[in-house]
Fold these 3 entries.
Entry 1:
Amino acid sequence: MDIDTQQDVVVIGGGAAGRSAALVLGRARRRVVVVDAGQPSNQVATGIGGFLGHDQRPPDQFYAATRVELAKYPTVRWREGTVAAVDPADPAAEGGGWRVALEDGTTLQARFVLLAMGMRYDVPDLPDVGGRWGASVFHCPFCHGWEHHDQPLAMLAGDGRPATEGALLLRNWSDDVTVVAPPGTVGGADRKVLAAHGVPVADGEIAHLHGPGRELASIELADGTVVPARGLLVAAPHVQRTGLAADLGVALDESGHVVADAFGRTNVDGVRAVGDLTTPMALVVHAADTGALAAVGIVRDIVAAQM
């Protein structure tokens, strides 16, 4: 087993949050290893929405460019792989902290572990979603709404998102919005609100999505009703990718996200968490911000320990 040199931080996950943390840590000349499995949550998205300087940029281009930026800092290293376990280091070992075991047998040791592996999106099991997810079928109107502005749009009711909220959000981008309502998902009070705003309700289960490639043209319901739609908003709740956070004893909130303060501190000393792991907010710019703040907090804590 290869025991690597002592690090200041092992960042688990190389999405926007993990990379942002690594950049700030590298610029502060802290020793960092980013362990990345190469499965960012937004990999399938057609573009990044609302991130100044990266707006509408395809995720693969963003990740390629940020790898080049990180390579400029000699204390930041990148390791492709998957973390198998994280355990407290031997208290007698220099630096203490944490031992991070990778599935390939490598072991890293660091003073801090930064959890940045993101969350898995629980995409509804709809027929014909396929490659449309992240393009014409999406969960975040702020990320994808502009690409479908002034087009007919639909919102799938149920799965925890109020029909009125989702539909009225979509009306920021289009006046042509329809709520698709499986049985029991939209009550009378919501229907009155929707009607007052000119939003029709199409009752029924989705039988087919129609359109070429990743595009959506219409939604066919089980009774044969066809709803024109170029975009479909669905609820896709976050789910933990692995049991790593739970294994570490990190506290989770009722939605399954890690409880962390503004600087990523969790209830476990030396374990920080950032990005989608800590919030249902799915904006890439927000993930990057949490990573940067966590890095600042870690550097300040390292300095405080020297006083």
Entry 2:
Amino acid sequence: MTKQFEQDLDILKQTLLRMAAKAESMIHYSIQELVQRNPELAVEIPTLEEDVNSLQLEVDDRASKLLALRQPMAHDLRFIIAAMKISSDLERIADQAINITQNTRILLLYPEVKPLIDIPKMAEISKQMLRDALDAFVQGDAAKARDVVMRDDQVDHLKSEVIRELEAMMMTDPTIIKPSLQLVLVARNLERIADHATNIAEDVVYLVEAKDIRHHAEEKEHR
């Protein structure tokens, strides 16, 4: 590998990390807006979304040029493919943060339905999953990536708890149906964020081990 090619790959990696940091900030601001019922806490989100979209285009452009001009093989080829897939998941995470903000704006038109406990937990787990998936990518750590994949079930469980509780509340008090449905949507947005973090972690395993573990493929091998 030439020194220039190494530098090009490092620029690609650093661009992804910048993109991930902005996506994580969007999650944070959107949840703070919800928890504190304060739209001013989310004013940076539209600008951050534009940045994420711009960085995705930059990643795709750099990756496409490297594929065309360098014709990489083996690990380098997997790295570039993984980078493009990761950028797509990061852009979708940003979209989910936008959805949370939009749902929150409707929710804030109504009195508070219930104290928020599980939803902030879901947000923290999802943000940590994203952080750890990117750390695994930087470190080339397949074990850490697999740990991220395992944590997806925690978010799924919390989402189910949120929906179960809200359904029971709506049955006894129909006046809270509209804001409760917005909370259900937020829980689903956070579940999707965790799913995208899981996708990134699966891409890291593919990058490091040339092994596809999507759709529980690894579990099926051991049955």
Entry 3:
Amino acid sequence: MASRVVLKLSGEAFADPELNYGIDPATVARVAEEIAVVHHEGYQIAVVVGGGNIFRGLSSAAAGMDRASADYMGMLATVINAMALRDALERAGAPCRVQTAISIQQVAEPYIRLRAIRHLEKHRVVVFAAGTGNPFFTTDTTAALRAAEIGAGLVLKATKVDGVYSADPELDPDAKMLDDLSYMEVISKRLGVMDSTAITMCLENDLPIRVFSMAKPGNIAAAIRGEPVGTLVH
């Protein structure tokens, strides 16, 4: 069981479940309440947020744009999500700080590794926004990087599927969910758990990854507690 974890939330964690776009206060509140429950149990929780519910650099909306410009727009979208999550966490009774890899000091702290660790030690949730601060890197890679930097024991990836499948379950009716995988299996079979940069970083730093569905109530709390939900990559 890891007492310090990094939870990766995609933009879907903030969106209206039907529209899959924008920020739905009820959805954000549910996620925040689950995080707050395990925060009060003593777990040190850092969260990396995506921004795909607002803008995704690799999307039709960004077609024709310069990739770096599109990625920076995506990073700014994650800051909006981070502020929404901080508000919801504070209302759920979990003190929270947002740190951004792009300097926006009027709304959030700059990312400083030792300050982030100190916040966790003082029992605050830390939300990391703006990715790594560099284009061409995903928020999955950010989660792996921040987990290594702050000495987390586990990376949790909350998604819209139950776990990792042997094939795309929407295309292959015989696809089976896999409970346990090695990093090399994920890379060699191109299973799409996270991008290869993130998987390699977790491999090199011996960071296990748990992939699970955030749609089922209670799953986020269960995953943070180390319960066997979804798929474990190690």
